[in-house]
Amino acid sequence: MKTGAILSIETALDGGSIAVSRSGEILYEMAGRLSRASELVDAIKLAMESANLSTKDLHMIAVSTGPGSFTGIRVGIATALGVARALGIAVSGISLFDAIAFSIEVDEAAIAIPLGRSRFGIQSFRRDESVLQAVIDPTSMTESALWDLIIETPNSQFLIHGNKALFTEREPASRIPPNVTFINANLASLIANRAAQLDCPGSLAPIYLGR
Question: What residue ranges in the chain does DSSP mark as E strands?
């Protein structure tokens, strides 16, 4: 795991989030109010001050590559590249699917991320010879289709970003299937942790699945 400080940016989903970590420890995290580039720049300054670090302490910028808002993804990546170039440090692109999949110990799971308008992005992962890796390309489906898939495959594990409120209009919270786990952690923090695990920076290719 990398020991230098990492600034992590997530602007693909509504609200956005930001985090600062070092040696695997989250020093600062916040969520919301990051829909515009100017707000993101101010949030970065606050994050570094709150973590008691200067930009000279940064080893890397980690940024979400989606899925999510087309504009949000572009704002996050452009800001990360601008800051990294000014500081002469690396930028690591991390998909939200990867960030969630590697945040919990699983051998096989489908990661689902709400995209808005009752649609979800989904990607499946499986552990092969102790290495967790994606087994299908990211895709999107309606909430109804995801629910049907959950019910029809009770032996499959689903990790869903969000909380039970996503499905309570369909089913009471007490009847959410046992093969569903909701992940409510700060996404920027998960991105920072995943970036620290990688031997080299991740791709900045954005994941656009539409809404």
Answer: 5-10, 17-22, 25-31, 58-64, 90-94, 108-116, 119-128, 131-134, 139-142, 158-161, 180-183
Q: Are 35 and 175 within 8 A, CB to CB?
A: no
Amino acid at 28: Y
Q: From CA 176, how far away is CA 170, in angstroms rounded? A: 10
Query: What is the C-alpha to C-alpha distance for residues 173 and 160, in angstroms, rounded to an integer?
Result: 14
Residue 168 pLDDT > 70, yes or no?
no
Structure tokens at 170: 């369909």
146: CB partners within 8 A, 6+ apart:
112, 120, 122
Residue 133 structural domain:
104-183
Q: 109 with 148, same domain?
A: yes
Position 172 scores a pLDDT of 62
Give pLDDT tens digits for 64-83. 999 999 999 999 999 999 99
- Check: CB of residue 5 under 8 Å from CB of residue 164: no
pLDDT at 96: 98
E strand or H helix that includes residue 81: helix 70-87
**Count of CB atoms within 10 A of residue 77's CB?**
23
Check whether 190 has a pLDDT greater than 80: yes
Q: Indicate if 90 and 191 belong to the same structural domain.
A: yes
